[in-house]
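The instructor's notes for this session suggest beginning with a concrete chain rather than abstract definitions. Hand out the sequence below and ask the class to guess, before any prediction is shown, which regions might be ordered.
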Amino acid sequence: MRSGVRLDSTINQSDRITVQSDAYYGEQGTTLTIPTLDSPYSEDEAAQRFSNGVNLLSRWEHDLAEDSQLQLQAYYDRVDRDDLLLTQHRDTFDLSLQHHVLPFDNNDLVYGMGYRFYRDDLENSKTVSFDPDNRNVDRINWFAQNEIALIDRRLFLTIGSQFEHNEFSGFEIQPTARALWSLTDTSSIWATVSRAVRAPSRSSNDLRYIAATSPGEEGVPITSTIIGNRGVDAENLLAYESGFRAEITPAVSIDLTGFYNDYSDLESLEPQPQVSSSVDGLPTTVSPLFIENQLDGHSYGGELSVDWRVDKDWRLVGYYSYLQMQLTPDADSGDSTSEAQEGQSPEHQIMLRSLLNL
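After discussion, reveal the predicted structure:
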């Protein structure tokens, strides 16, 4: 069940506001496989999952001048999830400010900053736990992007970057550069180079998850346990993209894109020496899997889409994509998950869509 309300209002010639709020409730019946400490070392357990939440967004837009706009946005989100493995209560507050201006001829500049505060309160279970079970996290970012029109407004160069500080990996820089050249009024080519970062998450730092249990010597079970690492670094991506767009006829257009992605410091699961422990007073042997950054990799591929307006009421859209991915553990890594991750995305995808206006 979901309900919401939205208000858009023009206060005067220079000011506009938007206020939006949603509330929801949901429940889901499911069956989970839970590791156990005795034979057969797992059991299926039926469970009901409940989730509810509320959010509120407010945005103010102000025209400083004909070519200068200011936008201030605030957002709050509350989520409660009651699950067999982990009960969660999360609050998120986000504030952002951005300024759009045309400072010079042929320049289009956007810059701003944002702040996000996140707080959770978790109720641990035997299978999944976090240490600590409640934590406050904040993140601040600054960004700027400038689009420059060159050579009779046929060549466009866009450069920019986001600068972020988070408490998991510290200071991060994510720059991008993009060039677009309009060959004719109906065709263009473009190329982009970007760096992106995935900061470590709460799970990467604080998780303890019993993934599986197996029999051990003298009846003492072995628990394969994934353990978070406060020293894990951010995952990095350097992405190269290029493409061609054209209107072949007034009824047919195509879009062709190629890409190459270079990944470094991806998170891996590294086995550690077994240690003796206990769960609910019962002796166990823990086989730890630490979260570390010992995976690198690359992916490459392309996409082709064709849009054909057969007549004024009928439109056909065709799409094909190709993807190759290769993940390589470091020489001293014991990670065994990379091959499974490589197979999680399809190598070929084909889609044909027909749209008819009745």
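Then share the key points. The chain has two helices and 19 strands. The helical segments are 202-206, 338-342.
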